[in-house]
Amino acid sequence: MDKITRTLGRSPETIAVFRALKLGDLLVAVPAFRALRRAYPTAHIALIGLPWAADFVDRFSVYFDEFIPFPGWPGLPEQTVDPAETTRFLTRMQERPFDLAVQLQGNGTCVNPMMALLGARLTAGYYPESLPQYCLDTALYMPYLEGQHEIRRHVQLMEFLGLPSQGYELEFPLTDTDCLRAENIPEVQTLEPNRYVCIHAGGISARRWPEYRFAEVADALAAGGYQIVLTGTASETAIVEKVKTAMKFPAISLAGKTDLGVIGCVLSQAALLVSNDTGVSHIAAALKTPSVILYSTSRPEEWAPLNHQLHRAVLESQATNSQRVISEAWTVLGH
């Protein structure tokens, strides 16, 4: 019997998962979400997340039944705190006490006090081992180990709670509607499956691999016969244009023309992704699209895809010129 069922005296009927972060952060937690759902197949499971994550819950409806927007909390940098809305959020949570609230946000120094205010019958998650006062329940909170891989970390929490692992594989479900929207984009219609490479030079990090280096990689792959597709959000259009302008070969720009589903369909038929460490790199890992990922501020030991044959991690310090990335790209492509 798992710890939750034993402590509660029954299987939980309602569960809230707190992870109010970005796309990549949620994708690497999917194996933990899968383990939670398999352990409690009839439970009503809600994700408490940033406003954008409503789309994530829709895509992962096999694991989640509800999305609860998170209004922010002092000390969390992802959004500005509205004290009145945060108070209303806590009141709403307390008015419908969940059987279980699971903290997957981080080490707990900032958010565990909030977890105690959610009104759940049980809470579980992480605490910093050096600060035991942040441990809300010694049976249900495990030490947060710095430097651990994010995928393994969250699966291990599930195992700590007595829920069997369902593997470390990522997922990114695609729908017929996603692919239909992709097919309706004129630029996508010109792409030959497995004969194009996606280049994603944007990302949320303040420091990224330079655009001209991405252009050098793109030109080398284009010279080898691959179409080049430059991807990015609307806010990354200027970055994409810098890459395109620096290139010698022609390239297709999809900047601002894709949503998550469309970029998933484009990546699913790509021969390769070359990207900074950002959300699309985890989509590629989920879709088993080969990739070469540049790490400027994050650590590959914590964030890189686990399949090192299909996905290559390159530190910015190892890529002072483009040759290392080009070499890794050709290796992954089988040349």
TrEMBL record:
Q: Name one Pfam family in it.
A: Glyco_transf_9
Set out the biological process GO terms recorded for this chain's protein.
lipopolysaccharide core region biosynthetic process
**Entry annotated with the keyword Glycosyltransferase:** yes
Q: Which UniProt keywords apply?
A: Glycosyltransferase, Transferase
Q: Does the keyword Cytoplasm apply?
A: no
Which GO molecular function annotation, any one, does this entry have?
ADP-heptose-lipopolysaccharide heptosyltransferase activity
- Record InterPro entries: Glyco_trans_9, LPS_LOS_Heptosyltrfase
* CDD domains noted in UniProt: GT9_LPS_heptosyltransferase (cd03789)
What GO CC terms are in its UniProt record? cytosol
Entry protein name: Glycosyltransferase family 9 protein
Organism equals Larkinella terrae
